[in-house]
Design brief:
The protein is built from nine helices and 13 strands. The chain has 380 residues and is of the alpha+beta class. The chain has a single domain, classed as Alpha-ketoglutarate-dependent dioxygenase AlkB-like (Jelly Rolls, Sandwich). The strands form two sheets. The chain has a nine-stranded antiparallel β-sheet. Strands 7-12-9-10 form a four-stranded antiparallel β-sheet, with helices on one face. The C terminus is likely disordered. It binds succinic acid (SIN). One of its GO terms (biological process) is oxidative RNA demethylation.
């Protein structure tokens, strides 16, 4: 019989780790009844509708990046987690396809950095999409080597996060994608953070058995600015804990199109992804939604229609995978990086491959590999 989350975890010795293992376990499968599903959930004692600033983003600005008018968004906060905002898929129907295509085809391109750069030459990783398209769109049925797209685990944008030193630096920077900045600017403004500067991005690519270890995102120098997260493709269980590992986390589903903002007291909380899973029955999936935009695009729209050809590959990929994009402002106004880099600090692709080969994992340098495409949670 499936065990209940509550019977596994009480506060105490690494309650987070116990809960992580509970949801990661496949046999027997866990009981998901304690997992909050915001897209179904009526407000309860714990789930409270969040007030957004609908005047901060006009309907036209929202539509340019593929979003519905802010007044129509369903946003929630969680009792006990001040500064945490969950937004249930606010995308216009068909517009997620644009963002998925960017994540798979455009953002992995140079000058952005990805896990494959750690052990392949720039010329080998310069066209990940082009080198994968043929094998992915016409599978032979035989066991074939994984395509580069299937081996992609992370991409960094803007100030490139250094997984070894867990720092950003001024000398490892390439321009942040303008379209993703605009999307982030509108969402953060609606959540009460006008003037957000998207300076760094991390894309995590999850296969069905990937997980992301327990961690806190604290490398940014200004923690007064929020951390923004976008999810596409398969659903995930997201665990949000406290400021120490003894605090039992709250489990929630993240479905395709959902967004999360961590700010204020919730900016530095432990969190993790123990599990990727299909959306529950009855949930409209991205594949069902497809790539046809239902509303007509304005002349200056940022989102553009995705060709049937590109969408065929994207939908094949997200059929069993998930992509998460986190966008961060690294520096506060007038702030700069410390003059002297730490001795460990390296620039650019001088990073070691570290532990990234197999999974979306934030616990770089300490990761323990297991036989599946997943990681043991380790403290960061
Ligand atoms: C996620 O994949 O939803 C979490 C990503 C992160 O914590 O950076």
């Amino acid at each position: 019989m499936a065990r209940m989350a509550a019977s596994v975890v009480e506060s105490g010795e690494d309650a987070f780790r116990k809960m992580f293992k509970f949801y990661k376990k496949r046999n027997p499968p866990p009981d998901y009844s304690a997992v909050i599903n915001f897209s179904r959930g009526a407000p309860s004692d714990k789930i409270v509708p969040a007030d957004l600033d609908s005047a901060a983003v006009s309907d036209v600005e929202a539509a340019r990046v593929g979003l519905r008018p802010v007044r129509d968004w369903r946003a929630f906060s969680l009792q006990g987690y001040p500064g945490f905002i969950f937004i249930c898929n606010p995308f216009l129907s068909g517009s997620q396809s644009y963002w998925v295509r960017q994540c798979l085809k455009i953002y992995p391109q140079k000058p952005n950095i990805c896990n494959l750069d750690m052990h392949m030459s720039p010329s080998d990783t310069e066209d990940i999409w082009g080198k994968s398209v043929h094998a992915l769109s016409s599978p032979t049925g035989k066991k074939e080597p994984k395509t580069l797209l299937e081996r992609l685990r992370w991409v960094t944008l803007g100030y490139h996060y250094n997984w070894d030193t867990k720092t950003y630096s001024a000398n490892s920077y390439t321009p942040f994608p303008a379209d993703l900045h605009l999307l982030s600017l509108q969402v953060t403004a609606a959540c009460g953070f006008p003037g957000f500067n998207s300076e760094a991005g991390i894309l995590n690519y999850y296969r069905p058995d990937s997980s992301l270890g327990i961690h806190v995102d604290e490398s940014e120098l200004d923690h007064t600015r929020p951390l923004l997260s976008f999810s596409f493709g398969q659903s995930a269980i997201f665990l949000l804990g406290g400021t120490c590992r003894q605090d039992p986390p709250t489990a929630m589903y993240m479905h395709s199109g959902d967004m999360m903002l961590m700010s204020g007291q919730s900016r530095l909380l432990y969190h993790a992804i123990p599990r990727i899973l299909p959306a529950p029955q009855g949930h409209t999936t991205l594949e069902m939604e497809g790539c046809s935009l239902t509303s007509s695009l304005q002349e200056d729209a940022v989102v553009e229609p995705v060709s049937e050809e590109d969408w065929a590959l994207c939908s094949r990929y997200i059929h069993n995978s998930r992509v998460n994009v986190t966008v961060r402002q690294v520096l506060g106004p007038g702030q700069s990086f410390p003059e002297t880099p730490s001795p460990l600090q390296r620039t650019d692709t001088g990073q070691t491959d570290g532990p990234h080969d197999g999974a979306a994992d934030r616990d770089h340098g300490k990761r323990k590999r297991s036989s599946s495409d997943s990681v043991d949670p380790v403290e960061t």
